[in-house]
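Obj: model holo form, ligand = iron/sulfur cluster.
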Amino acid sequence: MTTAETSSKPWNSIDALANAVRSCTACGLHSTRTNSVPGSGSSKAEIFIIGEGPGFNEDQQGLPFVGRSGKLLDELLTAIPMTREEVFITNVVKCRPPDNRDPLPDEVAACRTYLEHQMELLDPKVVVTLGRVSMLRFHPKGKISQDHGKILEWGGRILFPLYHPAAGLRNPTIKRELQKDVLKLPEALRQANRVSPKKATAK
Ligand code: URA
Ligand code: SF4
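Output (holo structure tokens):
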């Protein structure tokens, strides 16, 4: 399934793509951003974590998940145990939507090429989506309340939807679900090796 996205590859590295994102003006969000937020982490990451869009702190620093949601994300990773340096973290849209509103469909569409090429360049085994907006990008019929914590297959990879950490900060029940779900991530990685064993040695 991902092969449909591999026909053109305008950027030959994650860094080259990040530079394009930093100067991008392809949608209206460029006019209100302080910094765009291409993503951060290991270019050899097996786990690709996708949030919704930068918030205030991310826009200020140009880095993903550096505010309170990011702190919870770090705590969740620590439980596996893993660090953010071992994964790659990005967002569906790379510039902050004003007042943290949901990104509009035309903004998601304009930014789509960056997410697709990051996926192609990193070739991760497991795609972790955080929250509804990110999950719908890969699993349009999904329901976050039902599908969070499920190990699903998507285009030769494992798709592992989680609640958004910001939802966990607002709701203790959701936070507990997040803490429980994240413990399945090592199993998701093991299943990824069964779905596509060649990825285990492809890097
Ligand atoms: N929420 C997101 O979806 N992404 C971030 O980078 C920070 C908060
Ligand atoms: Fe470009 Fe994406 Fe930022 Fe829009 S959100 S300006 S498409 S990088």
